[in-house]
Each structure stands twice: as C-alpha cells, then as structure tokens.
Write a structure and sequence with these properties.
Radius of gyration: 23 Å
Structural class: mainly alpha
Oligomer: single chain
Largest sheet: 2 strands, antiparallel
C-alpha cells in the first residue's frame, strides 16, 4: 500500500493538472501576442509533450476568440504552434502542423481554419497551382462553412495571377451567383470586368462594369474602395490585399485569447 501511494504521489508530481495545462496555453498565448514566437512554441510544446494514462489532454478545453470557439487544448496548441512557425517564416513546418490539425476532430472549426491557412501560405509563396488545389479541398470538405466564399475568391485570384482569365472568371462568377450577401461579391464582380479587360474582351468588360454599376450605387462604397480599384495590372496584388483585408483576416484566425 505504501509503495502504491508513493508511486501515485510521484506520478501526480510529474504530470500536470488540467489547470496547469491551461496555464501553459495561456502563457503561450501571451508570448504569442507579444510576438515572442519561440517562447510561445516552448509553452505549446509543454502541452504537446504531456502524456499520461491519468489525464487525457484532449479532454481539457480552452476558450478562444473572445469565447466564440471552445477548443481541445492540444489541438489549439498545434494550431497556434503552426501560426508561430508561420510568423517565423518556417512555412513548411507550419503547413505540416496545419495538416496535423486536420487529423484531429475535437474542434471542427479548427479543421476549416487550418485548411484556410494552408492555401494562404501557398498564396503567400506564389504557388498558385497549390492555392487552387488547397482552396478547392476546403470547398469539397467543408461545403457549408462560411470560409467557402473566401476560398472561391482565392481560387479566382490564383487563376488571375496565372493569367488564366477564363478559369478566374468562373470562380468569381460562382461567388457572385451563389453568395449574394457576401462582402466579397462586389469585388468579385469588379475582378470579372478586370479579367475581361486584361484579356482584351472589350465588350465583355464594358458589360461587366456596367452590371457592377447598375447593382451597386456609388454612395454604397467608401471613397477609398474606388481608389483601390485601379485598372493597372501592377497594382492588382496591393488591391487584393487591401480590399479583402487579408492581413486583418489572418490576425483574426490566430487564436489569441
């Protein structure tokens, strides 16, 4: 009996309690928020290295995104470790961890966000064929998620930057037709016209821009939106980043509690 108690005491000493695991995650989030990504990774690793028959780390939950997302702490740690690697420029390591997130099913929303991050990394690296494959994978696997419309927008832009204007227009047109209330709809309509213009389809371009003008009144746009919508090809990447708020969108997906 004495030996058993001593053994049990030793196990409890070395195995963190659920609260200690949560504390490690909170510490990681704090380091992440202060952009000390290496120390954040150290904290996430403490969680990922926790193994015990007496405590399953997956059963420990953490609240994220101002309480909007309840996540398994181990899955959240993998996701945030991937984000930390991405911020350190280690995109291959980040992509591998985002794929690992997709093998875990205790937090369904993170599956979608991980797939989004994967194709966004490809976009950042200008690997546009991979963007199309990964974004289509999101559409196929999570057809009812709100991220689908963003995936179509990314597909349209990937084809556009490859100068495959017809394929780009197909993706943008699907977004326009199927997501009437999407904030991306008006931008997709504009890009359809831009595709026609750059592909020397002058009549189609005129019709596309006229349709845009007819559906959306001038006063419904901020002045800056029109300033961003320049017709110069060398401005297209800047237009895309600003108009779709890509930087702020990424930030919202980094799970800082």
């Amino acid at each position: 009996i004495i030996l058993f108690l001593l053994a049990a005491a030793g196990v409890s000493y070395f195995v963190p309690t659920p609260q200690e695991v949560r504390d490690s995650f909170t510490a990681g989030q704090n380091f992440y928020a202060s952009k000390d990504y290496r120390k954040a990774i150290d904290q996430y690793n403490k969680i990922l290295e926790t193994e015990s028959n007496l405590m399953t780390a997956d059963s420990v939950r953490v609240s994220l995104l101002n309480g909007e997302l309840d996540a398994g702490v181990r899955t959240a740690a993998i996701y945030q470790k991937a984000n930390a690697y991405r911020n350190l420029g280690r995109n291959d390591s980040a992509t591998a961890l985002f794929r690992l997130v997709q093998t875990r099913f205790d937090t369904p929303k993170l599956l979608v966000l991980a797939q989004y991050q994967i194709y966004d990394i490809f976009y950042q690296q200008k690997e546009y064929d991979s963007v199309v494959v990964a974004a289509r994978d999101l559409v196929t696997r999570y057809p009812f998620d709100e991220k689908v419309e963003q995936a179509y927008y990314a597909i349209g832009w990937a084809f556009r930057l490859k100068k495959e204007y017809d394929s780009s227009t197909v993706a943008f047109k699907y977004l326009v037709d199927m997501y009437k209330s999407s904030p991306l709809r008006v931008r997709a309509m504009y890009q359809i016209g831009q595709n026609d213009l750059d592909d020397s389809k002058w009549r189609n371009a005129l019709q596309s821009f006229q349709t845009l003008i007819n559906e959306y009144q001038l006063e419904s746009f901020a002045k800056t939106e029109f300033e961003k919508m320049e017709l110069r090809t060398n401005k297209e990447r800047q237009i895309f980043d600003a108009a779709s708020n890509r930087e702020s969108d990424n930030t919202s997906l980094e799970l800082v509690s």
